[in-house]
Design goal:
The chain has 106 residues and is mainly α. It is built from six helices and no strands.
Length: 106
């Protein structure tokens, strides 16, 4: 049985449906479950890394970095694919930067 089974099957579904994200984070931070805290830390690292990559690609595109523009255009990774699709979308269908990041770090 997985170490995270209890947290994944019983705790997260309940916590995920209550209150605001800030409140849910507070609950996770205060539950005395080491594995739940480990999962929280992994999710934080994933989000932080996705944010760094996204911001680097976005900054390079704005500054006209040709190599990175070609990489995004060739869509070799998930964030590049999402950025390319979002740039090609109509104004009403475009996602905000935070929505693109949410898709990349899920």
């Amino acid at each position: 049985m997985s170490k995270l089974m209890v947290e994944r099957e019983y705790v997260l579904p309940v916590v995920g449906r209550i209150g605001t994200p800030k409140f849910r984070r507070w609950v996770v931070d205060h539950l005395p479950m080491k594995n739940l805290h480990l999962m929280r830390d992994v999710i934080d690292d994933l989000h932080r890394t996705a944010t760094e990559i996204f911001e680097t690609k976005q900054r390079a595109l704005k500054e006209g970095d040709e190599a990175l523009a070609n990489q995004v255009d060739q869509a070799k990774d998930l964030i590049s694919i999402l950025m390319k699709a979002n740039m090609a979308a109509t104004d009403e269908d475009k996602l905000s930067d935070s929505e693109v990041l949410a898709q990349a770090s899920r």
